[in-house]
Structure formats: structure tokens, C-alpha cells
Amino acid sequence: MPIIEVRNLSKTYAGGTTALSDVSLDIHESEILALLGPNGAGKTTFISIVCGLVTPSGGEVRVGGHDIVRDYRAARSLIGLVPQEISIEMFETVMNTVRFSRGLYGRKPDDAYLEKLLRDLSLYDKRDARLMELSGGMKRRVLIAKALSHQPRVLFLDEPTAGVDVNLRRDTWAVVRRLRDQGVTVILTTHYLEEAEEMADRIGIIDKGRLMLVRDKRDLMHEFGRKRLVVELVEPLITLPADLRELGLVLSEDGQHLSYEYDTRADRSGIARLFATLARHGIAVRDLETRESSLEDVFLRLLGEAA
Ligand SMILES: Nc1ncnc2c1ncn2[C@@H]1O[C@H](COP(=O)(O)OP(=O)(O)OP(=O)(O)O)[C@@H](O)[C@H]1O
Question: Is the same domain home to 104 and 58?
Fold first, then answer.
């Protein structure tokens, strides 16, 4: 059974904005799902509904089999949420904040678990510091600790590394991966496509309230990705022979490089033909380089196609 089942979910806010329309999705235990989409696409609305902070206008959501409206407490107890905005009690210490969060869910005190959690998040040294004394990145990690204080099975991270430096971002990724390996399901939103590419098992793209696609990341990159082959020549070419141009090759300004773009899905016969044609013209090759498109290229291409 999926840990989260979303059926025909929609949301129209009081002002009339439709933030979600007819979203259906299953989220599986211990996967990392990244939700991508432009500003205002509906990602935060989706998270807020599943976490019970916003009431849906239509459709159903079950978390661990519990309906999020009829059976709110049971559903919510399985969820940890790291919100986009930092709103914490600045005068409290790190350890007390996390203890308090755990208490809110009615869980028995367990300082051993909480101390381990702080260690995992590299916050243990700061456990007695007041939140106002922490850096922005540390405060973000306190939010993660709070969200995990009641040992939820699902963790929502709304832009977990916005404004966080590269090292800390990598630390956060490592923490999230470890959680996934411990069986926690993670749903995150991000505007850093590199983050989704690095971490996610599946990618969902939301645009204008619609879930445009949910796919295994590797399949997605494979299906929509493109490869680019750059051939460095021993001798520069002044003009490109017509048959090479017809194959889709492009000559660089300095005449030293030929480049060729192709679908990762397409069969490789194009490449073989290309080299045969180069050989026929007596064009000698010094070096080759291939580059695969990033998730960012794939994403922009998909949104472009949708528009
Ligand atoms: N409380 C609200 N009342 C009315 N409209 C809202 C409310 N919250 C969000 N919206 C609208 O719903 C739409 C979706 O917003 P949402 O915050 O879900 O997008 P998002 O994908 O999370 O965006 P971002 O990437 O900028 O965080 C937007 O048009 C937004 O203006």
C-alpha cells in the first residue's frame, strides 16, 4: 500500500485562485519525491493540504490509510513538516524546542532519541544555545529536527535549502538520504534542480495547479535527456562538407570542433554514420567529449513543450 494516496485533489482559495486541479498520485514508502514547478504552481498548497493546514475543495488524501480530514490526528501524527518560512521561538534553546515539538504530538519524552537526532543534524554542540544565537542554516536544521521529533514516517521539506550554503546543502542532502534509508518517505519542493537531480528517486512536475508528470528520475532523464558529442579535430576545417551538415553536425567558429546533439533514446546508428563520413573525408579526430543534459535542461524543455 502506498504511504500517501492522493485522489482527484483540488483547491480553490476563497479569493477564487485555483491552486490545484484534479491531482492524483501515490507516494511510496521510503522514496524521495521531488516536486518541481514554477512559483505559484501549487506545490506549497499540495503540502499544506496533506499536512492538514489547508482544507481541500475536492478529492481525498490518505496517509498511512488515514483520511486527512476524517481521521486528521492519526494522519498528522505520521507526518513531519519543515515549512518554507522560519518561525521559531528565538529565546528557547535548541533541545527544549525539539522536546516541546515532540510533546505536541503526545509522544513520551525520549531525550536519547532527540540527542541522536541533533547529532545527525550536526546540532548537538548547539543543544543548549538559544535559537537567536544560531546561523540561518542552523535554524533551518532546527526546523528539520522539530519536524522529526515525533518520529514521523513521512517528512515534507518545503524548499529545505533555500539560502543555505553549498556545504550545508550537501549535509542536508546526506541527512535526507539517511532518513530515506531508515524507511522515512520524503517529499520535497525545490527550485534547485541540481538538488532534485542529486537526491530524488522520483520527480513530479506541477504547473498551474496540474500534476503534469510523475516519473522515476532515471527514466525521465533518459527519455527527455539529450546528449551532445563534441569532436575535436586535428586540423581545423574551413567549411563543413554538405553531407556532414546534413547529419546535423555544427562547426565551431574556430573550425576546430564539431558538435552533434542527439536523443539519449535514439539508436546509436547516427554516431556510427557520422564517424564513417568523417573518415571518408579524411578528417582526423584528436579527442571526443560527451555531455548529458541535466535535469534543468529536461525541466525547461518539458515546461517549454507544455507552454
Ligand atoms: N492562502 C491563500 N489564499 C489565496 N491564494 C493563495 C493562498 N496561498 C496560495 N495562494 C495562491 O495559490 C497559488 C499556488 O500557490 P502555492 O504557494 O501553492 O505555489 P508554490 O508552487 O508553492 O509556489 P512557490 O514556488 O513560489 O513557493 C498561487 O497563485 C498563490 O497566489
Answer: yes
